[in-house]
Amino acid sequence: MSIFLSNPLYSILSLFIFITVLFVHSYLKHRSFPAGRLNYIYDREIGLQVTKSSPSNPDKAIVSTVSSIIDSFVFGGLDKCTASWKDNLDAILKNVAAPQTQLINSYPLLRFCPILNRTFTKFVKAGNAINTELGSRVAARRQMSAVSEHDDQLPEDFIQAALKQNKNYSDTTLITSAGDLWTGGLSTTVTLLRWALIYLVHHPNVQTRIREEVLEAFGQSMPNYKEKEKTPYFLATIRELLRLVNVLPYGIPHRASKDVTMVVEGKTYFIPKGATVFPIYGVTNFDPNVFPEPYSFNPDRFLNTSHNDFSNPQNFFPFGAGRRRCAGSSLAYIELYVLLGRIMQFFEIHPEDGKLPSLQRSPGMTNEPLPFKVVLKNVPGPGIQRPV
Fold first, then answer.
1. 235 Cβ partners below 8 Å, 6+ apart?
2. Which residues of the sequence carry a binding annotation for heme (predicted)?
3. In whole angstroms, what is the distance from residue 327 CA to residue 90 CA?
4. Domains and their CATH numbers in the chain
5. SS3 breakdown of the chain: % helix, strand, coil, rounded to 5?
6. Alpha-carbon distance 127 to 120, whole Å?
């Protein structure tokens, strides 16, 4: 039994979360996402929003693309995201990482502080609206699945797969799972894609190596995550981005279930029963004993560690660990691989007016980059053209 499971009620809740996360990861592991649908989403959201040689803030294209992909994974459809849905997701993204929200989430009594509560209220209001809409869509999907129970032609999305496994899953379970995929898959992927563009602008040689590898493996076809072993350097770059960005510097708070004494580097630490514990998974990311020259961007460091297996290497937890690991992490891996690979196939990323974007981070629950602009230029060469 983990020392971070407190009372019986919490243990039951943790078990529920654990089972939910296991199903999410199992589904995503065996999910085959139609290449045609990915092509359509990519061309619509990125290929058609980028103006050649024009400096632009990529946020709109990134958020729209990732949102559409998640919606297709979860509900199997396109163009289902309403304006209010997108506004509420935007509010969640802006407020979930705010220090005020995290303080109140960890210490609920602080919600009575007006200055802190203003941001938290926006977050809660947007979250409730999202849950309401998720509930409506889950109910509609349940009804559709019941009517089409024996229809093998029905596209298998996450909700249908869950109902096929157990038609008695409650709406609460399905809404929670879908919400985890949405918030986890969206916020982490968007943040990682932002940082990926920034670091690749700083390292054009890495861009070139990724592009050559992806084109050799897939040509101009959509990169296939199931064949990721063909692109070891690209995988190493993604791992290095996850390590260096450290998108989730602080883990979800846990509570000690009993008194614990720990000895670390000769020092003794006492953790009393009931204490709130914040795991800092990223502490090893910058440990020179684990990663030499930890503040250098060096994808080659991961080529020396089972690069044919994209599971987390030892001492590397970009999305947390254990029962409360981010449920959207598997989806984030797939999205990051496919979208970044697709961008590399067709574009070179250049700084605006020769000025490199800042590597400074905005403080909060997630390590967000400062606003930036980049220039995407068509890759020169015969046969390599931007998608239309």
1. 228, 302, 307, 310, 337
2. 326
3. 20
4. 22-246+325-378 (1.10.630.10)
5. 55, 10, 35
6. 10
Partners of 376 in the β-ladder: 349
Nearest one of 236, 239, 233 to 318, comparing CA atoms = 239
Which residue is listed with tokens 């249908």?
160
Check: CB of residue 225 under 8 Å from CB of residue 35. no
Structure-token pair, residue 231: 């692109």
326 annotated ligand binder: yes
At 201, the amino acid letter reads V
* Distance separating alpha carbons of residues 260 and 250, to the nearest angstrom: 21
- Do residues 189 and 332 make contact, with C-beta atoms less than 8 angstroms apart? yes
Contact 97, 368 (CB under 8 A): yes
d(CA 321, CA 77): 31
Rg, C-alpha atoms of the chain: 21
**pLDDT tens sequence for the chain (388 residues):** 333 333 333 333 333 333 344 444 454 555 555 555 555 555 555 554 444 445 566 777 777 777 777 787 788 765 456 667 777 777 777 776 677 777 777 778 888 888 888 888 888 888 888 888 888 888 888 887 766 665 555 556 778 777 777 777 788 888 888 887 777 677 778 888 999 999 999 999 999 999 999 999 999 888 888 899 999 999 999 999 999 998 877 777 778 889 999 888 889 999 999 888 877 877 888 888 888 999 999 999 888 654 344 444 556 677 666 555 665 566 777 888 888 998 898 888 999 888 899 999 886 667 889 888 888 888 876 444 444 4
Scanning the structure block, which residue is given the tokens 């980059």?
Answer: 369
Q: Which of 337, 70, 298 is nearest to 202 (CA)?
A: 298
Q: Is 91 exposed, middle or buried (CB count within 10 Å of its CB: 0-12, 13-18, 19+)?
A: middle
Residue in the block written with tokens 């209220």: 121
Contact 38, 379 (CB under 8 A): no
d(CA 79, CA 127) in angstroms, rounded, equals 21
Nearest CA-CA partner of 204 in 57, 369, 347: 347
Q: How far apart are CA 272 and CA 256, in angstroms?
A: 7
Q: Which two tokens stand for residue 112?
A: 């009575």
Residues in the chain: 388
pTM attached to this predicted model? 0.75
Question: Maximum CA pair distance of the chain?
Answer: 66
